[in-house]
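Run DNA-binding transcriptional regulator, MerR family through structure prediction, thanks.
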Amino acid sequence: MKILVGEMARLHNVSTQTLRYYDKIGLLQPKYIDKENGYRYYTIEQFAHLDSIILLKKIGVPLKKIKEYFASRDVEGMLELLKTKESLLQKEIKVLRRKCKDIQNKINRIETYRRKEDFHQCKVKYIPFRQIAYLDFGKKGNLVDFEYGLKELSSLVGEEAYHFQCMIAGILSREQVLKGEYYYWENVGILFEEEVLQSDAKVLPKGEYATITFKGNVERGVKDYEKLIKWIKEKGYKIIGDGLLLTITDSSYSEFEDEFIIEIQIPVK
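Sure, done. The structure for DNA-binding transcriptional regulator, MerR family is below.
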């Protein structure tokens, strides 16, 4: 029995353009060509051939690999294709689970901070060890240095990790903190809270941090910063390391500054 291209396409729920492309690349060519009218015909025996192509395409096997398989088609070849694809899918599943976890963590962090009722309040909290990849400006950095530094860091760790697995941090050296300086940073960093992603990342020790959280852009945090420094002194704490200005939400999340959230963290003992 001879089947025209249109009928073959209809029976297998594919387009005629797809069949013509398979014909062109030599993947599945009509068995017969009518010499008088040029019509091209498939046979019933080619149904299984097309079914195999459709199956392999659905699970993501490239046409090149499918064509190689059909050059010497047997069960062993099919098993090899399926096992290879299964292995790739398992890796993709692992990556997707990681992405899902990263997104969930980001959602939880933002929602937790949005529910806070103690903005502008000083307190000490224990924070487990974290890692930070940072860039030293070698000078008093400005906003341009900060943004360019972030781009350099995002290239270092990868865009996906940058957007989903970390928080942006302006770094205030211990000397700056002791002097009460706030308006510039000599370093910019991206902080990871869970696992090691970069071999050259610096470990931030676990311990107690004096913290205060505020809404708005960095400039709005001056009074909160001064309040926190004063509170640290009044409580008899000693500043033992660099301070961090952690961005929870910023202009990449919202155009409204009242929705920006920043937390200042200063290690103390």
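Residues 75-114 form the longest helix (40 residues).
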